[in-house]
Amino acid sequence: MPHSLPAVRRPLIARVADRCGRTVRSLEGRAQPIIGDHLDRGELAARCAASPRYNGYLSLEPGLTYIATGAGGLISCAQSGRSAFAVGGVHGEGRDYEDVVREFVRRAQAARVRRALLFPVASDEVDRLNTLGFRSIQTGAEAVVSTAEFTLAGRAFADLRQMRNRAARRHGVSVVEVHPDAHRAVLLEIWREWLAHRPAQHQMTLLIGSPSLDHPDDRRYFAAFDGDGAMVAFATMTPGFGGAAGGVDVMARRADAPAGTMDLLLSEAILALKADGVARVSLGACPMYSTHRPERAMARHLQLVFTTLYRSQLGNRVFGFQSLPAFKGKFAPSWHPTYLAAWPRMGAWPLYVGCGMWGLFGPPWRDPSH
Fold it and tell me: CB 156: neighbour CB atoms within 10 A?
């Protein structure tokens, strides 16, 4: 099968939102670079892996500024105009947590940053951050699989079993764990092809990581091969909670990968982690999604924005708001609210800036790395 297909054109609404935001950002001016700390790669990776987070490895992405306190406190941030965005969440427990958040705000103020954003924020962090001057808004829900309950048996996994069988039996797809050095060229090829066929056409750098082939650290790489032995998809899994849990980061496939490939790939990766004693695996957050009424009241105009984006065809052309939770729901996860926190206040503009820095509308709004 051919692997070269035409790239998807970015939706008009995304291009308009991107252009407007970049214009306002240019008029607002740019803050000074936030002063960062120098930590070697090993210590950064150790702090992220020990942190009580599933996706803390996002803090290892290139081009970020590191702020570290105590033995475990860590925040990694990017800047855009007068905004700073801390990616991968706040690392550290107890006093380390509060100290690194305070230091982030102090350095942001010194650099004349007008707004500081934190993502992701869990429910048990909201009140804690509130006392530190942040305000939060629920932006979606994270799907977490308990490996003890992930058996592939019963009605809850019926759709997943069907898609697994379709890939394995009908198309001969198989899944193995691979080392990135042995498959570097094909992993990069699949990654680039996947990006080209996404509506955004680029990596959402503050929401999803990169394959990190040069610095795998403790990532694990799982690949799907078709019946002819060609790699058609791969996924990376990152450690968290001191090794007790893990998270899915990159999931990429060829445009012509057989139906059910990703279902088989992800379920086999979860089973491999389960066999190694990992108790929980996060499938990542689904933007704008919630399985119940938000835990905390949201301003009406923001609720209207969320509802319109999630339910409308126009919004789903920008991002697969509805398709993503439908896919992850096949793994029978529990759903946990995720928040975006902003200092000194939350509103439509901080939310808009956060989406722009995520890369929801176009290439992520980022100042050059310093």
Answer: 15
Tokens of 264: 């088989």
Count of CA atoms in the C-beta half-sphere (13 A) of 257: 27
Give the residue-averaged pLDDT of 235-264: 95
Residue 356 tokens read as 């722009």
DSSP states along 289-324: --SSS-SS---HHHHHHHHHHHHSHHHHHHS-TTHH
Per-residue burial over 21-34, b = 16 or more CB atoms within 10 Å of its CB, e = otherwise: bbeebeeeebbeeb
Identify which of 95, 79, 87, 65 has the alpha carbon closest to the alpha carbon of residue 25. Answer: 79
CB 142 within 8 A of CB 235: no
Q: Find the radius of gyration of the CA atoms of the chain.
A: 20
Question: Structure tokens of 277?
Answer: 């004693």
User: What CA–CA distances, in Å, run from 6 to 195, 196, 202?
Assistant: 12, 8, 15
Alpha-carbon distance of 330 to 143, in angstroms, equals: 11
Cβ neighbours for 276, distance < 8 A, ≥ 6 positions apart: none
Residues 307-316 have pLDDT tens digits of 555 455 655 5
pTM: 0.87
Give the range with max mean pLDDT: 100-104, 122-126, 192-196, 322-326.
100-104
Within a 10 A sphere around the Cβ of 295, how many other Cβ atoms?
11
148 within 8 A of 114, measured Cβ to Cβ:
no
Which H or E run contains 236?
A: strand 231-240
- Residues 98-127 pLDDT 10s: 999 999 999 999 999 999 999 999 999 999
HSE value, Cβ hemisphere, 13 Å, CA-based, for 277: 4
Quick one: which of 297, 290, 283 has its CA closest to 321? 290
Closest of 82, 48, 84 to residue 68, by C-alpha: 48
Residue 76 backbone dihedrals phi, psi, to 5 degrees: -115, 130
Give the pLDDT confidence score for residue 205 in this predicted structure.
58
